[in-house]
Design goal:
Blueprint (H helix, E strand, L loop, with lengths): L2 H19 L1 E6 L13 E10 L15 E5 L10 E4 L2 E7 L6 E5 L2 E13 L5 E22 L5 E2 L9 E2 L1 E7 L11 E3 L5 E10 L2 E8 L3
Antiparallel strand pairs: 1-2, 1-4, 2-3, 3-6, 4-5, 5-6, 7-8, 7-12, 8-11, 9-10, 11-14, 12-13, 13-14
Amino acid sequence: MDGLRLADRLAYGAGCAARRTGFWYDAYRPDGLAAPLNPANRFMRLCVAFVLPSGAVNSPAGLTTPYRQAWVDWSYLRVGDYLSGPDGVAFVAAMEPPKPMLAVMTNACISLARPGVTATVGLNEYGTMEPGAEIPLVTDYPASLLVGGGSGDRTRNGLPDDTKVPGVTALLPMVAGVVPRVADILSNQRGERFAVSSVEELSGIWRIFVVQAVR
């Protein structure tokens, strides 16, 4: 048996386990820079069971990690696909047969934008970031957004009791044609805004470290 045949059999076996223990999920494949869960992007329905990253089922998942091992026939899926069902929305983070499929559970819907710069005419050239001139990069993408991993910073009012704003880590699928960079703006569905401090590319997903912006 070669590697391709083994991978196919493992995917089939994971699908059989999911049909016994899991729930029905809709699978979506992003097509563009916005709203990957648009009904037009739905391409199939299949059973999925999420367990701990180790494969164990004898304890609940922790609240501090979004990673899950997914029992599903992954031969129909690829990295970046979304799964929406009873446990919420997840995306495929890694597929490395013969190892099981890794998924990330999402808890936010985020957008990325690049600040625009408006020049003010005067004695010296002066440019400042203008929220109204922001250039959208991706819009309404489900993602994991958890406190920790980034480096926090104090607010900039210069007061002794300034509150330290938290560092936050965002995980989402990479989007073709988009390259996030430092100083881009990440916003979520609650209207909170974050400044990007660093970006990592991890085999098909972005890990973006951000600091919450305080006005």
